[in-house]
Specification:
The chain is an alpha+beta fold. It is built from six helices and twelve strands.
Length: 297
């Protein structure tokens, strides 16, 4: 994250980029005559992030965010055919294991930094037919930037797990309304006739880390395998569950900002990886206030 005192300097271009020794300068861009700026972020292979059409001050903000939010740090940087590439230590795009939650926390931080700089996501798109591909996120520039937001992520793991990443604590409390409301809402979806009992039922709810408040991730495990459904009733049941999740998020002030495939997933042609949801909430939001799905002025 970038200090607010730096934002005006970045927008005005008065902050110079701090280059490492022997590091090539970032590319410069000349676009069409339109005053609107567009840029994108690409996740590549297992460990690379590429940024296209961001200027040097914005790249410095991105570098700082990666360094402070990805616990393993940056391994190397380079100009790459008109983009600027960061090679990260570890394998953040593997999607599973000990790096899965920190990788999504890093993406949350990147979205927050870019959002505060005026770069708002337009869409996440998959334009590659290669195996192990990931989405490219397109951004549109807006100035002045929108009001700051809180950020959290949701991931759909293995065949039966839901992870709430960076869920906010309620003011003055040691609990999270998002977590408690999510458990209650999903648990209440069990049909009396047992029709969906094997699908939408919280088997065990437990913290993904020993202390989720410290590590920032909470995991819910379901009976059955909602992310591998094939029967009609189960397919519909899973979609009903997603709608219920959106209602819980909105009741807690959050709106879905972007759904993105950021993991390599399985190499098999018969399986694919699930998206991760990224959600935002105005920092000034209070219970009972409206939730803006477009950017408020």
């Amino acid at each position: 994250m970038i200090e607010k005192s730096k934002l005006s300097e970045i927008h005005s271009g008065t902050t110079s980029m701090e280059s490492s020794e022997n590091m090539p300068p970032p590319p410069t861009y000349t676009g069409a005559s339109s005053t609107t700026r567009f840029a994108c972020m690409c996740m590549s292979q297992f460990d690379k992030l590429r940024f296209i059409r961001f200027n040097d001050q914005e790249l410095q903000a991105i570098r700082t965010t990666i360094s402070t939010s990805w616990y393993k740090g940056i391994q190397a940087e380079q100009n790459y055919y008109g983009s600027y590439e960061f090679k990260l230590k570890g394998n953040p795009w593997s999607g599973q294991g000990s790096e899965a939650v920190p990788a999504r926390q890093m993406v949350c931080a990147l979205f927050e930094t870019l959002y505060n700089l005026g770069w708002l996501a337009v869409t996440a798109t998959d334009v590659s037919k290669k195996a192990l591909d990931k989405d490219t996120t397109m951004f549109r520039y807006q100035y002045p930037p929108p009001p700051p937001c809180d950020w959290m992520a949701i991931s759909f793991n293995q065949g039966d797990r839901l992870r709430l990443i960076n869920p906010p604590l309620d003011d003055g409390k040691n609990t999270s309304g998002v977590i408690e409301d999510m458990k209650q809402a999903l648990g209440s979806m069990i049909k009396k006739d047992g029709k969906f009992n094997l699908l939408i039922h919280i088997q065990t709810e437990f913290t993904f880390y020993p202390d989720w408040k410290e590590q920032g991730a909470y995991e819910i495990k379901f009976r059955g395998y909602p992310w591998y459904t094939s029967k009609g009733s189960e397919v519909i049941g899973t979609r009903m569950m997603l709608l219920q999740m959106l209602e819980v998020l909105e009741n807690n002030g959050f709106t879905l900002y972007l759904s993105i495939d950021q993991s390599t997933g399985a190499s098999s042609e018969t399986t694919s990886d699930t998206d991760s949801w990224y959600c935002r909430r105005l920092k000034t939001w209070k219970k009972g206030e409206p939730v803006y799905h477009s950017v408020p002025s």
